[in-house]
Amino acid sequence: xxxxxxxxxxxxxxxxxxxxxxxxxxxxxxxxxxxxxxxxxxxxxxxxxxxxxxxxxxxxxxxxxxxxxxxxxxxxxxxxxxxxxxxxxxxxxxxxxxxxxxxxxxxxxxxxxxxxxxxxxxxxxxxxxxxxxxxxxxxxxxxxxxxxxxxx
Length: 152
Description:
Blueprint: H1 2-17, H2 73-86, H3 97-106, H4 122-131, H5 136-143
Helix pairs in contact: 2-3, 2-4, 4-5
């Protein structure tokens, strides 16, 4: 009987050893999931001959100049709304809202990035127009069409 128990234990041990790895892949020759084969690059790392869309080739540079990229109308609308609400009377450098929108759209100002506090952009002027409410003397000059002292 002891020989039978030893034989059974040996067969059972060999059976467990033959099951393979614990990765659950089912195929012992498959590469690990976090290490793809060299001929199949990951999707987030495109081959060098196929640049991502947000990185145009050098012979086709992006156009960032204000003339090629005027501020969007809604950016001018937000700017003029904030400016005309805060910079009234002697602080207002525009004849009316239409003059403000027209100046914004044709001035050559860049759009900028929300929160910019300097630079010749609609974003800078919108920032200072938004801060002009409590202190128009300090901020309306920066927010106006010339951007004096801040948004030049």
